[in-house]
């Protein structure tokens, strides 16, 4: 299986956090395959956190919204916290207009804030200086 997996959506592992993103066009079949694959990866990798970047998602429908809610519930049952990051204003407006609520889904303005909420901190090394671990 490729890094993109069956659903065609890459799922990367950074320590004990999985990072993935949804593409602009996400049909019902792909959404279901993505949710299945991601929950399997959570269990297999022992992930404690998942960041789902939806900044490229321009349209959301009730099925994709429900899939995100179910994915969050399944991940919590497996011991992982899910944060959905990068929601566009048009997607938020559509959710409100359709009366859809992402019950139980944590959100962050962007991927960097989502990773920080999961315990990741961006550190900048001065140019030309080795990382601290390498200096020991």
TrEMBL record:
Domain STAS: 7-118
Gene3D superfamilies listed in its UniProt record: STAS domain
Protein name per Swiss-Prot or TrEMBL: Anti-anti-sigma factor
Lineage of source species: Bacteria, Bacillati, Actinomycetota, Actinomycetes, Kitasatosporales
């Amino acid at each position: 299986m490729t890094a993109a997996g069956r659903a065609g959506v890459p799922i990367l592992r950074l320590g004990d956090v999985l990072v993935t993103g949804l593409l602009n066009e996400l049909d019902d079949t792909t959404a279901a395959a993505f949710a299945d694959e991601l929950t399997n990866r959570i269990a297999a990798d022992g992930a404690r956190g998942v960041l789902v970047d939806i900044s490229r998602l321009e349209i959301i429908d009730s099925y994709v919204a429900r899939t995100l809610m179910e994915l969050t519930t399944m991940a919590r049952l497996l011991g992982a916290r899910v944060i959905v990051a990068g929601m566009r204003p048009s997607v938020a407006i559509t959710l409100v207009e359709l009366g859809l609520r992402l019950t139980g889904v944590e959100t962050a303005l962007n991927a960097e804030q989502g990773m920080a909420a999961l315990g990741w901190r961006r550190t900048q090394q001065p140019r030309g200086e080795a990382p601290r671990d390498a200096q020991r």
